[in-house]
Amino acid sequence: MAKDEKKYSIPTIVDVARESGVSYSTVSRVLNGYEFVRTSTREKVLHAAEKLGYVPNRQARSLAGGRSNVIGILVPGLDNGYIGEIVRGIDEDLAKSNYDLMLYTTHRHEGKESRYVTSITNGLTDGLILVVPLIPTAYVEALRQRNFPYVLIDQSDMSDKSSIVDATNWQGAYDGTRYLIQLGHRRIGFITGLLDLASAVDRLEGYKAALSDHDLPLQPEWVVEADFWQAGGYQAAQALLALPQRPTAIFASNDLSAFGAMEAIRDCGLRIPEDLSIIGFDDIPQAAIAYPKLTTIRQPLAQMGRVAAQMLVEHIENPDRPARRVTLATQVVIRDSCQPPR
Amino acid sequence: MAKDEKKYSIPTIVDVARESGVSYSTVSRVLNGYEFVRTSTREKVLHAAEKLGYVPNRQARSLAGGRSNVIGILVPGLDNGYIGEIVRGIDEDLAKSNYDLMLYTTHRHEGKESRYVTSITNGLTDGLILVVPLIPTAYVEALRQRNFPYVLIDQSDMSDKSSIVDATNWQGAYDGTRYLIQLGHRRIGFITGLLDLASAVDRLEGYKAALSDHDLPLQPEWVVEADFWQAGGYQAAQALLALPQRPTAIFASNDLSAFGAMEAIRDCGLRIPEDLSIIGFDDIPQAAIAYPKLTTIRQPLAQMGRVAAQMLVEHIENPDRPARRVTLATQVVIRDSCQPPR
DNA sequence: ATGAAAGCGCTAACAA
DNA sequence: TTGTTAGCGCTTTCAT
Predict the structure, then answer these.
(1) Same domain, B276 and B209
(2) What is the tally of structural domains in chain B?
(3) For the segment B87-121, what is each residue's pLDDT rounded down to a tens digit?
(4) How many CB pairs under 8 A join A and B?
């Protein structure tokens, strides 16, 4: 179908060449910003292109060895608020550099991600941003060997062979815990994230370090393992609330599980923050909408996306630049869900 | 760069042909499911492809006149919860049909969307889903003329030349208003959406009709114009609350503005739902997280996405199928933000 | 049932 | 500074 219509309507580089009376490689040069073109020629070509409404054909361009001007982003799914913000940041930055965005979700291809990634990086995209939480060693390795530009978001891979953007997870948890301690809390429960993820572990460690630095004992039963999801937060909070020595504050490893915890707290007939303080992590948009507004540790998600996009474009345009890691600062955002214990 | 690496590592159809000892057009046939290929040949080829880890090159395929197996989705931005759900639905459905998803945001290309759309539909994608709220007449017309497959989401274009997926906006608003009336409310404020949008107008009309059907007067000052955003909802609610005859319930045209209104209500020292009931529209994920949980009119957003994806694939695979409109039912979701007036 | 060859729109040597 | 030409990987006639 599309094939036929193309002929009718969409002008190619050849049409532009004919219109402007030069060879079509000259048109290509002009369009690619090649330096040594006579100004008058350039103008003729540009004018003709404008007149004809020429738009480049990305696949032809990329097939011929040029850039596709598409970057891919591989995410687990869109259903957690967290990713949405990152994608937004990426898109914002890419708009400036005139790259298009191809969105891939991994949940569609359980098991054969590796082949999937090959397909993506096989000319369709110039670079790839991976927001997959688990370290995807297999294909990251493949990408590196092929020297295909990519950036990881929120990964702990310390090999410094990959470019990575992340946030200060440890410090954020430390700061949040300290904030609760300074409010006067002594019994602080902690709901972990999925401990397969480095970010979850780092947050837990930050919490522990803060307790220890303030000479508070670490009660093992105050740490309940969960999975970063709302339902998990609900259950974890229930466990915490059932404790004989109930915590006066709960630190949830992300906002989503904090919401679950808030629900559990209310279902117990307790008020937030009067009876129990709660703090989250991430600062997804919902955090400011929830009631009470959630005090949380802000990860600059959109900015992480923006930085990742910038780094990726750098890599694409300068393949030899070495990998680097950028760690953005988290920040305690004080809202209404915490107060001193009674 | 990518160019060089390709040679090293990524097998093409030619490699598969060599490996299996047939011509590469035969390989192409097998890969495209062409019927008349000897079974033994097919197996040889498939086996070789598998062994080599062959993945098709989408641009080459599409350049040569085949399908790209990519569908594009054009959205205003990712920052409203609403779109995210739709995209999720689309992605879910597309996973089944093995199409990839290209995400385009319009805010990047103010003014020259038309050319942008040309670029997208110029072979890069096999079809396009448009979630742009304002009717994009210019390029929709262009798409139709080129017979390029597309589906609109949430558009009112009644020409029945375009395939459209939407929801029962009028009915939803009617039902919601009736629900409030049945709770006993007589003074019901209404916060509109951006009235340039048909969905906003439909919702307003549904509200009016419900009042009228129940012999309630329509007080002009109870209808405050807003824009579907949280800040707008806040202001609109303020206006409503300042009225001498304050409404006992507020219908917000979408959840986001309902959240804004809730904030304003609380800032006035009023409680929800004890002092004032509020109902939203959309049922974005935040609605169930907010406190009190928001009673709202559910639009099946993810399902709208799924249906749109299905329709689009149908159109791609059968270009002659006539356009059609699918309107999905809305539904009152009763949570905790409404109660009878005191 | 299979092979040979043309060509999709473009970039990038190589000439001129 | 510009034109000529050879592919990029694939689909699709047209032969065989």
Answers:
(1) yes
(2) 3
(3) 989 988 988 888 888 888 876 566 566 667 777 78
(4) 161
Same domain (yes/no): A178, A289: yes
Instruction: Give contacts of B 35-54 with A, CB under 8 A.
Output: 53
Q: Residues of B with CB below 8 A from A71's CB?
A: none
Residue B159 sits in the same domain as residue B227: no
Q: Is residue A32 part of a domain?
A: yes
Q: Which residues, numbered 72 to 111 in chain B, qualify as contacts with chain A under a Cβ-Cβ cut-off of 8 Å?
A: 77-79, 81, 84, 87-88, 91, 95, 100-105, 107-109
pLDDT in tens, A198-250: 899 999 999 999 999 999 999 999 999 999 999 999 999 999 999 999 999 99
Residues A236 and A159 in one domain: no
Residue B200 lies in a domain: yes
Q: Is A319 on the interface with B (CB under 8 A)?
A: yes
Whether residue A216 sits in one domain with residue A135? no
Regarding whether B234 and B119 lie in a shared domain, the answer is no
pLDDT in tens, B103-112: 888 765 665 6
SS (H, E, C) chain A: CHHHHHHHHCCCHHHHHHHHCCCHHHHHHHHCCCCCCCHHHHHHHHHHHHHHCCCCCHHHHHHCCCCCCEEEEEECCCCCCHHHHHHHHHHHHHHHHCCEEEEEEHHHHCCCHHHHHHHHCCCCCCEEEECCCCCCHHHHHHHHHCCCCEEEECCCCCCCCCEEEEECHHHHHHHHHHHHHHHCCCCEEEECCCCCCHHHHHHHHHHHHHHHHCCCCCCHHHEECCCCCHHHHHHHHHHHHCCCCCCCEEEECCHHHHHHHHHHHHHCCCCCCCCCEEEEEECCCHHHHCCCCCEEEECCHHHHHHHHHHHHHHHHHCCCCCCCEEEECCEEECCCCCCCCC
pLDDT tens digits along B47-94: 999 888 888 888 888 888 878 888 988 888 777 778 888 998 998 898
Residues A292 and A305 in one domain: no
Range of the domain at A37: 11-56
Indicate whether B39 belongs to any domain.
yes
